[in-house]
Amino acid sequence: MTVHTVGEVMTRDVVQARRTTPFEEVVRLLDHHRISGLPVVDADDKVLGVLSGSDLVRTQAYRDGPVPPLAVTAGDVMSSPAVTVHPEQTVPDAARLMERRGIERLPVIDEADRLIGIATRRDLLRVFLRTDDDIRRQVTEEIVIDALKLPSGAVRVSVRDGVVTLDGHVELRSQVPELIHAAWCLDGVVGVVNDLGFRIDDCAASTPPARIGSP
């Protein structure tokens, strides 16, 4: 089944700053590239933190205060540590992380923790622009029929606003969580409602053999 990864949708040409980049230069970078935030990296391209528009607003308010501050750099105002992802992580997982942490961008790092790209909310949303019918077809054809080898009518799949509802009966109880997990991993799925039943409980603990003779 098709599940996009962060590496497929991330922006590789990343606008970035160093810890010592002056505040004014950061503002110019954001304005020139029309972006709302950027990662801050060290000399080895390892991510130290992230600068967002809200960080800049707070800093500007401080600079406009009654006492003039010392020179402010990106390292002074960045949010640290940065929330990062690896390129092989799935787009749905990255989107849920972004939503849970309330952030707009995720620096993408390699095995050595070096910056290799950035995934913004807009990058991830492009993958989620799928119709409910497209998601329903994928769940039915690639999961129910191809992966689980169930008859097409065994599980009724309905999708509304990205929420998948599964209704019907599978053969084995163990297939229920398998089906739910597979649906959750699909691009564009924001929720799964389980109304499934099963015919055989293959998860039940085996009954110990009866003892013969006197105790």
Largest sheet entry: 3 strands, mixed
Helical content, roughly?
25-40%
Strand content: 15-25%
What is the overall silhouette?
A: elongated
Count of alpha and pi helical runs: 8
Produce the secondary structure layout:
Elements: H1 6-9, E1 17-18, H2 23-33, E2 37-41, E3 47-52, H3 53-63, H4 74-77, H5 91-101, E4 105-109, E5 115-120, H6 121-128, H7 132-147, E6 155-160, E7 163-172, H8 175-184, E8 191-200
Parallel strand pairs: 1-2, 7-8
Antiparallel strand pairs: 2-3, 4-5, 6-7
Task: Describe the structure concisely for a colleague.
This protein is an alpha/beta fold.
Describe the structure.
The longest helix has 16 residues, at about 130-145. This protein has a three-stranded mixed beta sheet. Strands 6-7-8 form a three-stranded mixed beta sheet. It is α/β, with parallel strands linked by helices and about 220 residues long. The protein has helices spanning about 5-10, 25-35, 55-65, 75, 90-100, 120-130, 130-145, 175-185, and strands at about 15-20, 35-40, 45-50, 105-110, 115-120, 155-160, 165-170, 190-200. Mean pLDDT is about 85; it is low at about 205-215.
